[in-house]
Amino acid sequence: MNEPKRHHYVPRFYLRRFTNTNGQLWIWDRHRDKIFLTTPEKVAAENHFYHQADLLAHGHDPLTMEKQLAEIETDTAAITGQWVDWLRQTEPRKQIEIPPINREIVALFLALQFLRTADTREILSLVAGAAEAKAPITTQEARRLHTELLWDEETVNRLAKRITGCVWIFARNKTAKPYATSDNPVAFRTGDNLQWVKRGIYAPGTYVVYPLAPDIMMYCHPKDSPFDRLEQFDRALSPVEITSSLISSENSAQVFMASRFVISPCNDFEEAKQFAKTIGTDTYKPQSQP
């Protein structure tokens, strides 16, 4: 049998939600500052990304990880697809039905999505190389380290458990400006709303921001959130009116998180480009009080 060659680290079912009417995605490549059209099959993926030669050498299926991820993707696609349909029709403050098992599945998916990307693999490679004071590690060694992380039940379950225990709130965008996504779409924001972070994700109040579709956003606020009375909105559509400025703010998360590609159903990346210039600067540093 022919093995699937191209492995996605952001699922195709998810990317398809952000396509235009022609089934294509607009991409801004941050590395090359290039904008182009493509399809979900050709982005956020690499050849043999999850292929593990060590397993093959011991007589096991080298695509075990890829197949395990595909199983949870299938479940999550069905669950969140139904959410999106409901949230497009429901009234603000109304709750959608999320059985505990579905909550656990989606929380696990979000934890794995954060850990499975090219960005995480690159960080692992850099840390491993620096620890051994040598040149960057090989592609195969990077795959092995990444597989070990994704199969580390303590690491994955810790993050999934935190997300499961959060207050899940949804927002609906009725403007003509879409939510964007990226090749690293699970974003984390500090509880004071001042910073996007890739580290310190367990800090008190830090919450998940995850675009489900160009018109639907998901927020996962931990119970230690500084915001009051959030629990009454668990599983509900937010009563907050989503404005263009709020969308710009949430889209900046995808620019910050992106390994390389920012993704949208439309060709409008000027705000993304401007925000990218501020990353690593103190442009949005909180002002000290006099």
Describe it.
The model has no long low-confidence stretch (mean pLDDT about 90). The chain contains 9 helices and 12 strands. It has a 6-stranded mixed β-sheet with strand order 8-7-9-10-5-11, with helices on both faces. The protein has a 4-stranded antiparallel β-sheet with strand order 3-2-12-6, with helices on one face. A two-stranded antiparallel ribbon has the order 1-4. The chain has one domain (about 5-275). α3 packs across α4 (about 100-115), α4 crosses α7 (about 155-165) and α5 (about 120-130) packs across α6. It is of the alpha+beta class and about 290 residues long. The termini are far apart.
- Separation of termini? 69 Å
Measured as a percent range, the helix fraction is 25-40%
How many structural domains in the coordinates? 1
Shape: globular
β-sheet strand percentage: 15-25%
Succession of helices and strands? EHEEEHHHHHHEEEEEEEHEH
Question: Biggest sheet, open or closed, and with what strands and sense?
Answer: 6 strands, mixed
> Regions with pLDDT < 50 over 5+ consecutive residues?
none
